[in-house]
Amino acid sequence: MPTLTVTLVDHTQGTSENFKVQIQHAFEDLLLDLLWTASEVGVVNMRWVSTRPAPGDQDLVIHWVQDISSSYIFQQLGHKPGDEKDGGFTASNRGVRGSEIYRRPKVADDPHARFPASHFAKLAAHEALHNMTRMGNDELHGRGGLADSPPQLPVTDPNRRLVQAALANLPDQLL
After folding, report:
1. Among 8, 137, 138, 148, which lies 20 to 30 A Cα-Cα from 159?
2. Are 43 and 56 in contact (CB under 8 A)?
């Protein structure tokens, strides 16, 4: 049975619990779809925390930060996120892999744009693909579904194969 334990770390101020629950449920549904096989039922254990999680307590960590200027990855790993219009970022340093998504991504045509929870769930799933597979933009983008940039639905069989192959060798996570 494919199992994945995920921790979402909230670094923002004022994100409502209701909105976080909506993101969590939508993200969990996407991960269950990525784990799906005809012969096995996948299991996703997921939680939100507002403090640094304990080491070894999860397979995947996604950091929820206010915006690109608040990048936790930059603070911790020294990698500067790319395009300020991106919705998320994943990077590695010293054998540790970190992923983050932005509560307030910059949108050229509407700097005050609001997005539904499903938007952030797709971004989190996309960054999870980068994280779990250790693939950069050139290797991952353009493969369809959640691997596209921006990520698209439905989840594709190639998306599932990438995640399921990565389960056996998940990287150490930025806590």
Report:
1. 8
2. no
